[in-house]
Amino acid sequence: MSLKKGGGPKTIPATLTITGQGSTDKVSITFHNRKSSEVEGKLKESPDVKMAAIIPFIVESWDLDWDLTEEGVLSMEDEYPGLVVGILDGFWKARRKSVEGN
Prior knowledge:
about 100 residues; rbstp2171; alpha+beta; 3 strands
């Protein structure tokens, strides 16, 4: 059995398909495999934590032109609204296990 405590991967590679503004684009991204409790803890660190600050916490690397910083994420979201939510959704989907064929 490969499901063992502490046995999850440290990072999770993913390709997100982003649509809108008249195009469909693929983004290669590698997520840190942060536990839900770690993400929730980050959100509770300060009442002023912005969703844009979570992206550098959960993303190890990406093939986008913006710096992987809160400022870079805010600039990206300003130009392409919805990307922050899309990346967060991609993170949760990449972490989620599912049952096949039962």
